Amino acid sequence: MVRIIEVGPRDGLQNERETISLSARLDLIFALAEAGLAEQEFGSFVSPKAVPQMAGTDEVAAGLPTGLTGWALVPNVKGMERALASGCRNAALFTAASEDFVQANIRMSIAESLEVFAEAAGLFRSRVPEGRLRGIVSTAFECPFVGRVDPEAAVAVAHELLELGVDEVVLADTIGTAGPSEVKRLAAAASDIPKEKLAWHFHDTRGTAVANVWTCLELGYRSFDSAAGGLGGCPFAPGAGGNLATEDLVYLLEREGFRTGVDLELLARATLPVLDLLGREPESKVQRAVLAGRS
Ligand code: COA
Ligand code: ZN
Q1: CA–centroid distance, residue 47 to ligand 1 (Å)
Q2: Which residues form the domain of 140?
Q3: What is the pTM of this model?
């Protein structure tokens, strides 16, 4: 079984120019859950001035489908308070491997972000001891401002997050530039982190995401983030394209004999209302093939 964390309702929607309604966000989450995506990053508790698309995540949290493992993205203590007040049981804290990127994204240094996270994680643990925390290392391969990132630098941040008590670390190719050899180098640098404590987050900006996932699978990793319909990006990372499409990921996995628990037909249809609202065509090749009846 491979674990898929669906991030379209957050990473996907936050990068769209159009802000869609709370009910359309919830409809998407329900359709994705119906397709079998039992873990979803459903929104973020960030400043609505910084990311207007994620305003009202508090209300989305209140309306989630029963049984869903919902992850909330949280940048600071205020965000953690909002997440806890909305009943969230799972939270993802995000920093980066590059100073310039963290500064642009959450207006802190890496060290400051880790201090803030220690406080946010403490608050979380005191209120939901059974809850789970992820720590995201953005720009783990390359930063849009300063270029390539030393794998050791990314892994150092991963270790700091684990020391703060996160249950897993997510290594993110935020701008979608990495290829398989870089994945191998980063995995080698992270070899002392247990495989079940690492998840991978690829963007498909240059078409390398599926190759990178395959490399991770061969190395024994089993957790991946992806966004249905290939929605996504990051408004703070110039040039970041869409996420790895969940359809492309599910197809690869199932075709190669890994179970995902996802119904590809339902998944291919799940994003259609949102794509319609956004005035976009499906970008995932697999989604287009399934919709055309050529699956
Ligand atoms: N939720 C809602 N509002 C928040 C908030 C949160 N988690 N954190 C801060 N704010 C508000 C403050 O209350 C303050 O509001 P005011 O102007 O009405 O008084 C304002 O935001 C500024 O607060 P400050 O602490 O000075 O924050 P900042 O301007 O340094 O911005 C972040 C820091 C983290 C809040 C902001 O950069 C942010 O939300 N970034 C998120 C980016 C993102 O989502 N990236 C996704 C990954 S690509
Ligand atoms: Zn992303």
Answers
A1: 4
A2: 3-291
A3: 0.96
